[in-house]
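Thread: quick sanity check before group meeting

JM: Hey all, I'm pulling together slides for Thursday and realized we never actually wrote out the predicted structure for the chain we discussed last week. Dropping the sequence here so it's in one place. If anyone has concerns about the input, flag it before I start.
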Amino acid sequence: GLTIDPFTKETETKHFYKSKEFKEALNRLEFLKSTKGIGLITGQPGAGKTSLLRYFESTLNSNLYKCVYIPLSTLTVMDFYKALCDGLGVNPGFKKVIMFKQIQEAIHNLSYNKNITPVIILDEAQYLKNAILDDLRIILNFNMDSKDYAILLLVGQMTFINQLQRQNHDALRQRIVVNYYLNGLTKEETKEYITSRLALSGCHEPIFTDDALELLFSCTNGLLRPLNSIARLSLIQGAAKQTRSIDSDIIFNAQKEVNLTI
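JM (edit): ok, ran it. Output follows.
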């Protein structure tokens, strides 16, 4: 029997499956730690962007980095400023111009006086309003200083790249130091992922047939979120049938249920 749910999204960061893309993205983020400035991570929904963020955040030494994570970027400009003030440990003022100054002072104080680099992560960045994108560049630009005091990590779907390519965002786009796109797992990585997740749950037998693994990859394109959903449901359906292996028929039925098709 399985000791834990092998396909839960609550996986401990130390047990994350590190695909080739995952490792490459981490290398880019390590480079960003040394240079500071702006990083951009994009990918399809379910490609593992949030998992990558969780892992990256777990690698940050709290004595050297102050992480500010803003998960839902469907914010008004004022809400965004308040969230950023809160994350930086500042009691937000009542006006945007006051909060703007508070944010700049907090970033400068952390970096210059305490040798702590603020890491500002904006998830679901494709929902960011243009006014916020315009302000981001100005917030990070201290007196036209060439030195970067903070790391800004913009994370979103492919549509965000289209947004950044608009002419009015040229100055922000030109300051991007790291740009990486997550595609998802390869076919071989999908098989390795399933095997490794089962092993962590106490199962070392090949429960999924080769045909099942092939179908799992083809119907998910190696995207972790649908992969986990279909794999988990297939185990539930397999247990209900009291079968010892998960074949392509079970995967097919699980996929239909997950995708709400008949």
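AS: nice. The first helix runs from residue 20 to 35. The mean pLDDT is 90.
JM: adding both to the slides.
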